[in-house]
Structure prediction request, 261 residues.
Amino acid sequence: MRLKTLSLLVVLTVGLLACGPTYVRTTLWRAHTMEPARFNQLALRLDLPLFWTNDANGDGAPDPSEVRGLLFYPSSSTEWVHDGEFTGAFDDAATRIAAEDDAAAPTDPRRALVVSELDQASVALIDTDLSDLPAVHRDFVRRMIVIAGLIDRLYARQRGMDVTRPSLDARDSASVSLFRRNWGPQCLSADARHDPTCSAIEGAPFQPLDVYPASLRTPRTRSVRTSRRARTRRVSSDRRQSCARLTRVSSRFRTTRPTAI
Prediction:
C-alpha cells in the first residue's frame, strides 16, 4: 500500500512538473489576450528586450516560435525560449506585461509624460536568419555585435549618460527604458521635446556632452544655446515676414502692370 502511494505521488509530481509552466501560461493568456503591437508597447515600457512578431494562429497569445529577443538592451542575454519551450524568464515577463496592461494610468505627472513619450513610437524588428551561413561568417557577426555594443557604450559616454545615470530610479522601468532609448533623460517626441518637465529623471537635470571640456559642460551652456535658438527663430520669423511683404509688393506690381501702347 505504501509503495502504491509513493508511486502515485511520483506520478503526480512528474505530471505537475511537466504541465506546470504550460498551465501558468495558458491560464494567464486565456484571461489576458492582446495584440502583438500592444504586447510590444508594454514590453518597451518595462524595458524588456522581448518582441512578439505576429499572432500566426490568432489565439491572442504568443507562441515560442513567434517571439524574438532584442539586442542592445542591458538584459539582452535573457533566454526567452529553450528547446522550443518558453523559459521561466518569459513567464515572469508575461506576468509583468499583463500586470502593466491592467495597471491604472500614472498619477505622477512626470511619469505620465514618460509613458506617453514611449507609447508614441512603435518598436520595429530587424530579424535576420544567419543559420545557413558558414560558421566562420556567423562568428564574424557575433564579434561585430560585440563591437557594436562597445561603440554604443562609447557613444553613451560622449552623450553624457554616465553623468546622469546615477540619478535614474532603477525601479521605474518606463524611465529606464526612455533613458536607454533616447540616449538620455530628455523626451524627444514632437509633442514633448520642448517640455522641460518630460524627463526620465526627477527634476530634469541637464545632461552635459562629454566631448566638451568640463568648463563648457554647464547648464549655462544650455541656456546660451537656448537663447541662440530663440534668436535664430526670431530672425527666421522676421525673414519670413519680410519675404511675405516682398511677395505682396511683387504681386501688386504684377496686377498694376501698365497696358502696352
Summary: The longest strand covers residues 50-52.
